[in-house]
Specification:
Shape: elongated
Strand order of the largest sheet: 1-2-3
Order of helices and strands: EHEHEHEHEEH
Helix content: 25-40%
Radius of gyration: 21 Å
Number of strands: 6
């Protein structure tokens, strides 16, 4: 029996269900794998295909999530994105959340490992209350809070 090649799937607007049904059919016909590129709603599609299929090898070119989060939270005074797993030592007595995100290795993608650390005495309700009051009063968000 000839080995079927791996195929690439991309969703078009309004065709998500059809794409997921196609992924099931690809698996049923014993193709060697499904590759899901990451543009537009790529991550959502990749997750849906991974959940809809059972055994087929699955690959993705999801952009490094660390880069996405670094861009998304750039300039946020209370969010620190890091490439290494944070610990309490990194955030003690500070009103910040330090977070790391990586693609999990040796599992069906897309699976992310997210680790966050906060000092709940600082970043908890009291710190959040000061932060919200600052925003409501129109003063700089970090005023009165240790970074």
């Amino acid at each position: 029996m000839t080995q079927m090649p791996a195929v690439s799937l991309a969703a078009m607007p309004g065709r998500r269900k059809a794409t997921i049904d196609l992924a099931r059919e690809i698996e049923k016909r014993r193709f060697s794998g499904i590759y899901c590129p990451s543009f537009g709603d790529g991550l959502g599609l990749c997750e849906a295909i991974a959940l809809a299929t059972k055994e087929i090898r699955f690959g993705t070119a999801i952009t490094n999530p660390l880069e996405i989060w670094e861009q998304e939270y750039a300039g946020e005074p209370f969010v620190e994105v890091t490439s290494t797993a944070p610990s309490l030592r990194d955030v003690v007595r500070r009103n910040v959340v330090r977070v790391s995100v990586t693609n999990a290795a040796q599992v069906r993608q897309p699976t992310l490992i997210v680790v966050a650390a906060i000092d709940n005495l600082m970043k908890g309700a009291a710190g959040q209350e000061v932060q919200n009051a600052n925003l409501m009063l129109g003063i700089p968000e970090p005023m009165g809070l240790p970074l």
